[in-house]
Amino acid sequence: MLSSRHKTGRKVRPDDCMMIEIGKDSVSHFQYLSAADNSSTAPHRYSPKSPFGWLSDVRQPWNAFDGPGPGLTRPFKHELDRQIALVEYRNVTQGAYMCANL
Predict the structure, then answer these.
(1) Which of 6, 7, 88, 100 has its CA 20 to 30 A from that of 37?
(2) In sequence order, what are the beta bridge partners of 1?
């Protein structure tokens, strides 16, 4: 199996739909995932910022720990530092282009 690292930076070619992490202040046209209820934002030309939280309505593996427990050590502080964007992999071939205002 050929590596797709030269195209995508990944060793294995991703599926068509995948999640990527982008900065908390990034503005894009992607839909964002919410940690609270695992829903996604509505489609927008430029989606409103939606930082991925560390807590959810139902406890999930990605939730932050906010207090001591078995096998847990400090610090328990956390901050919103990313957005989870739902993206689609597309293979776009570069072609010849010319100005349309001739």
Answers:
(1) 88
(2) none
Beta strands in 1-102 (DSSP E): 17-23, 31-33, 82-88
**Residue-level pLDDT at 79:** 76
Alpha carbon distances (Å) from 70 to 9, 16, 36, 67: 38, 39, 24, 10
- Alpha-carbon Rg for the chain, nearest whole angstrom, is 19
Identify the burial level of 65 via C-beta atoms within 10 angstroms of its C-beta, where 0-12 means exposed, 13-18 middle and 19 or more buried: middle
pTM: 0.62
Per DSSP, the residues of 38-94 read: S-BPPP-SSPPP----S--SS--TTPPP-S--TT--S-------EEEEEEE------
Q: How does pLDDT run across 39-91, given as a tens digit for each residue?
A: 888 888 888 888 887 777 777 766 777 677 777 777 766 777 888 888 887 77
H/E stretch holding 70: none
